[in-house]
């Protein structure tokens, strides 16, 4: 029997009544942290792409409806209704994008601060070591230059 992989990713659990929409990235026991996070990232990217596509399509349709030509009252009313529907769809997409942004900001704020601090400290140590090494090399080159002049 396969071992359950150890992971630091909290797995989302839904109530049985909350499974109205199928989830493409439902965590499996065999899925490691990197695969799970990649699936979640892909899910977020698909949501954002879908909403941006809706905004772009709506804008294209609004521009095409705005053509000036000989139109009777029925055609004008029909195009006004279509424009209103497209604008409402674009507003829903914009609100959805704002909601996605809010969720991502919360995830960033509530993420593991210790891991972020550890990465920052490790990077600082590496940069400090590189700086010290560069100072030593410059000092050696300066000494060689001063010795060669004397």
UniProtKB/TrEMBL annotation:
Gene Ontology BP terms:
regulation of transcription by RNA polymerase II
Q: Give a GO cellular-component term.
A: mediator complex
Q: Name the principal localization, coarsely classed.
A: nucleus
GO molecular function (one): transcription coregulator activity
InterPro entries named in the record: DUF3140, Med22
Q: Where does this one sit in the cell? A: Nucleus
Task: Respond yes or no to whether keyword Repeat is given for this record.
Answer: no
Residues forming coiled coils: none
Supply the Pfam families for this chain. Answer: Med22
User: Keywords for this entry?
Assistant: Nucleus, Transcription, Transcription regulation
Q: Does the keyword Transcription apply?
A: yes
Q: Which family does it belong to?
A: Belongs to the Mediator complex subunit 22 family.
Q: What is this protein called?
A: Surfeit locus protein 5 subunit 22 of mediator complex-domain-containing protein
- Organism of origin is Phanerochaete sordida
């Amino acid at each position: 029997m396969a071992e359950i992989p150890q992971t630091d990713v909290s797995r989302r659990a839904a109530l049985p009544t909350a499974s109205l929409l199928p989830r493409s990235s439902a965590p499996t026991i065999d899925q490691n942290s990197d695969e799970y996070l990649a699936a979640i990232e892909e899910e977020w990217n698909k949501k954002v792409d879908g909403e941006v596509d809706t905004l772009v399509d709506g804008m294209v349709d609004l521009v095409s409806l705005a053509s000036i030509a000989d139109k009777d009252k029925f055609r004008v009313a029909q195009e006004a209704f279509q424009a209103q529907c497209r604008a409402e769809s674009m507003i829903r997409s914009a609100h959805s994008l704002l909601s996605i942004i809010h969720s991502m900001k919360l995830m960033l704020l509530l993420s593991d601060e210790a891991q972020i601090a550890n990465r920052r400290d490790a990077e600082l140590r590496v940069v400090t070591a590189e700086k010290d090494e560069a100072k030593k090399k410059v000092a050696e080159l300066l000494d060689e230059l001063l010795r060669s002049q004397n």
